[in-house]
Write a structure and sequence with these properties.
The protein has 15 helices and three strands. With about 425 residues, it is mainly α.
């Protein structure tokens, strides 16, 4: 057996082939740069490269990568916009990266840009350097930068990325703003109900015990819940923490997403909103990637992943397979029930007229406005529903507490007659 080359290290990698499919593997080389060259020679585009951890058992490092969180969209949008402006002004890529690294307020982005700058200095491309940080730089951004580098319009690609992320951030802010009020009200109501059960019901329970008579069924249920809470609350807290940890690790796995995401699209009130959000994201990302010159099949796979819903991701894979076989986009798209007729018809018109990215952009704008209108309508609907629910819950508890008193008063009046 040939001895391993002196200085060679083992690296694990994930990479995409020309069709956009991810593959994983392990290669021995002297440096990360050598790994990049080997992968390019195999026709693969590196996504992540990391040195294999030596040792087993207690000597192996514990990875907490599942808990990692990327740089937020607003920060990425500002970064992309500034980078596009500097490059269009004639600054070199290295100079631009150095300036952006120095002025970065976000500590995590500063660390990442330092690493990216070093890799570009050693001859690596910007897209490959960014591709080694897939948690922080979304696949959409990496592939649009790669297309911009290849086509010689990097500043235009970065400008498109910035616009895309700004719209996405605005969409998220709109939804978050609409959901803040109901969440705050429900949280305060929950605290109020718990306080009544823990502190007020026991006072009434002592008073009821001195009366010596049987309690009405609603009152007895309330007392039983109050008795069980001191034991139930710690168990509930542990269960919530355990579920939160499990969910954070497994929420992005295919097994979980394939079960949860279809339900999200079928929820009574929020299903339509979730579907509109996913379609808006899908069409906007697709329009930007096609405008940047990313191949259709690769773009379909990437926008499927970034749509935020497994149903659309699965549909995008099917459409990509159909396109690979020589079919158009509109036909396979119409076969997927998740896409409304308007989307497929606009895509068909775009293909026939040679302006597919323009049509997709118009669809994205339409669904962005639909999301905003639906969110406002939901907010108007939720407010009276919350008032009604809170009235029933808290009013019901008060009535249940006073029912024994009413019963005793009626009995006293009956005996007085």
């Amino acid at each position: 057996m040939a001895a391993m080359t002196t200085g060679a290290r083992a690296f694990e990698y994930t990479a995409r082939d020309s069709s956009g499919k991810l593959s994983k593997g392990r290669i021995e080389a002297g440096s990360e740069g050598a790994i990049v060259e080997k992968l390019r020679g195999l026709g693969l585009a590196p996504v992540t490269i990391s040195e294999s951890v030596k040792g087993t058992g207690l000597r192996r490092e514990i990875s907490l990568g599942s808990f990692g969180k990327g740089v937020d969209l607003k920060t990425l949008a500002v970064f992309a916009r500034q980078m596009a402006t500097m490059i269009s002004a004639g600054l070199s890529l290295l100079k631009t990266l150095s300036i952006l690294t120095e002025q970065a307020d976000n500590k995590k982005l500063k660390e990442i840009l330092t690493q990216v700058t070093r890799q570009v200095e050693t001859g690596g491309s910007l897209s490959d350097a960014m591709g080694q940080h897939p948690v922080d730089f979304p696949p959409l951004m990496i592939n649009m930068v790669r297309a911009g580098e290849t086509g010689g319009f990097l500043e235009g690609a970065l400008d498109s990325v910035a616009t895309n992320f700004e719209k996405e951030a605005k969409l998220r802010a709109t939804i978050k703003s609409a959901m803040t009020y109901p969440v705050v009200v429900l949280s305060m109501a929950g605290v109020g109900v718990l306080a009544m059960l823990l502190f007020i019901v026991p006072v009434f329970k002592t008073m009821f015990a001195s009366l010596g008579s049987a309690l009405p069924a609603p009152t007895q249920i309330l007392v039983n819940i109050s008795n069980a809470l001191p034991v139930a609350i710690p168990v509930l807290i542990v269960a919530i923490v355990a579920f939160s940890a499990w969910w954070r690790i497994n929420k992005n796995t295919e097994a979980v997403r394939s079960k949860i995401d279809p339900i999200r699209l079928k929820l009574p009130v929020f299903g339509a909103l979730n579907k509109k959000i996913a379609i808006a994201r899908f069409t906007r990302n697709m329009a930007n990637m096609l405008a940047a010159g990313v191949p259709i099949m690769q773009a379909l796979l990437i926008v499927g992943e970034t749509s935020g819903n497994y149903v659309l991701e699965k549909a995008a894979r099917s459409v990509s397979d159909a396109v690979r076989q020589g079919r158009s986009i509109a036909g396979p798209l119409a076969e997927e029930s998740v896409f409304p007729p308007m989307v497929t018809q606009m895509v068909a018109v775009g293909e026939d007229s040679g302006s597919l990215e323009t049509m997709l952009g118009k669809v994205a704008e339409f669904y962005d406005s639909e999301v905003e209108a639906t969110t406002k309508a939901l907010t108007s609907l939720i407010e009276p529903l919350l008032i009604a629910v809170l009235g029933v819950v808290i009013g019901g508890m008060i009535v249940a507490l006073y029912m024994p008193i009413f019963s005793i008063a009626n009995a006293v009046q009956g005996s007085g007659k």
